[in-house]
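Supplementary Data S3. Sequence and structure tokens for construct A.
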Amino acid sequence: MREDHLPASRAEIRALQSQRKRAAFEKAKLAPWYKGKLDHIDPDKLDDPDVWRRIPILDKDILRQWSHDAFLAQLCIADKTQISEYWRSGGSTGKPVFYPRTFDDVTWALHSWGRTYDCIGIYPGDLCHISFPIGIHPAGQIWARSAHAAGVGMNWVGAGNAVPSRAQLELIQTLKPTVLISMPGFAIHLANLAENEGIDLTRGSVAKIVCSAEPLSASKREKLTRMWGAEVYDVFGMSEAGLMGAESQAHDGIHIWSDMYFVEVVDPETGEQLPEGEAGTFCVTPLVTGNATPFLRWNSGDIVRYFEHGQSDNIHGELFPIIQHAHRTTGFFKLRGVNINHAEFEDFIFRNAVINDFQGVMFTAPSGLEQFTVRIEIRQGQDAPSVAAALADDIKATFEITPEIEVLASGTLAKDFGKFLKAVRFVDNRE
């Protein structure tokens, strides 16, 4: 490998994948959960798709059956002397899982997070303001640590529940970072707060926004671009594997570090790999960060399309394939026979320029009927009753349901969202 830890060619990546898949397979055989599940697979033929797909897919439903001690007993193969730290899973549902990571895992993680800077175009002289949690969830602390090797400046700010939003805006105005690294929901919240306080972020120092940990829909991207006057990039990772890739200048998908992560798009029913361009379930096998918990074919729940080549013309475009998210972990409400797709509804709301933020809540009314309430915060200077009435009409016309609209004071939702790792925009409180 070259000094920057990038492989020299796609041919080298294929050789590394073959070598590292075999190593990951042998490690998995040491884990009790895999006992008897891999005996029928020839380790010399793992590059054959028909052989590889015989490996059982591992998913969150399996992990949720176990306590933390049971998880370690079933899937951890490292002893305590090898453990550097634990990573918390970032899912908003279910009991969180804490993944042990060895010292080698963390070294590779620093490389994988560190690749984002050059891929996105963040260089020495740039200063990043990171608003991810700095703690047991890996994104914030690994990302911040990786900046040092890249020669990039980093303000270790942390999430809004640790450093209040107004203090974050003051830091941005005072220290003038060129890059904001944040969940998209929090970046929207900061922009709403700035607008309420008469701060024009489009005239500020932030030229790029790097998002992760939440779906970045086209409407969110447009809203962030409009409110910050910045170019918005997406990256993709998960605690089970690490940071797996980033967008580059073409913004046409996530370049996957395929020398570090073997990825598949599979049919959710059969587990068979799908052809390029077809939407299916995303599965990943960590090739270098599975030294403590050797996951094979981890099903993240993401629905994606895979393409061998994207449009970016830099080294990352030359070396790495891309994935495009169709939608992240499908979610919907059903109200009186009508499906309300969460991703579609979020896109619909965020395209409304007078609405700053929202939350959809399903509950059972005293009458016994199910009710959908949309809680919104609106831009200053707007007539709240008119906005609410127009939104209710638009929702009825688009989704064929009649909602209640609740207009909130600016900042209300941010306080609610601050209780969670990710913004909880859809809540089901039905009895």
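Construct B, processed identically:
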Amino acid sequence: MDAIFILANAGVKTSEATQGFELFDIFEKGGALMYVLVGLSFIALMAVFVCLWTTRASAVLPRDIVLTVESYIRHKDYAGLLNKCEADGSSFARTVHVIVQFMQRNQRASMDAVREVASAEATRQANILTRQINWLSDIGSISPMVGLLGTVLGMMSTFLEMAQGNFEGVKQMQMASGISEAMITTAGGLFLAIPCMLAYAVFRNRIQKHITDMEVAVTHILSVLTVQADREQRLGNNGVQKSSRIETLDDDEY
């Protein structure tokens, strides 16, 4: 029984080694362009890890940050708000940081100008997120082309041998084998392109959701800033009217 078990294990290991050798043999038959596909696969893998890190919720719109920013605005602690945004570093925090800096440097700017600045910065942050996942889309488009190029080169080599009068391979049915080897690069390109496009679709939907949530949050903060500015302007006007009334009474009394 032990001998049978040992022979069975040896058979399994031999089968695994044979499969590994066959995969390596298939890779070698694909030609030099298979190494290009391997390089693209490493780039795609790095892009996936980067997108997983940069598209997480805490990197775009952390939880409870809207309430925190609103609290700073209502207490008129704009210096503390800037420090909070710099420490946070999320896309929403960077947008709020630009808005507050613009309002401090241009205290007489209208809210329409503030909204334009907020819209421009929010669009820039959205483009940063979208640009990162475009690597996956580009690799998903390029890799099938690389595979198709390998197939065309392989078929050209096969037909050139036929044109040179080398009919021995054709007689031995080696032509089909040569074409199948040429198709390996196309299979490799598709094998890389399909996961890249799936990952791109997943990250694209995630980013669109984050961008929508961030637009709603920025709109809310702009509304709070508008209410705060109107309140300060109304209080300022009431103070001016009150002081004018006091001066008038003093003149009458005089």
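Confidence is low (pLDDT under 50) at residues 1-8, 10-21, 239-254. The longest helix spans residues 184-253.
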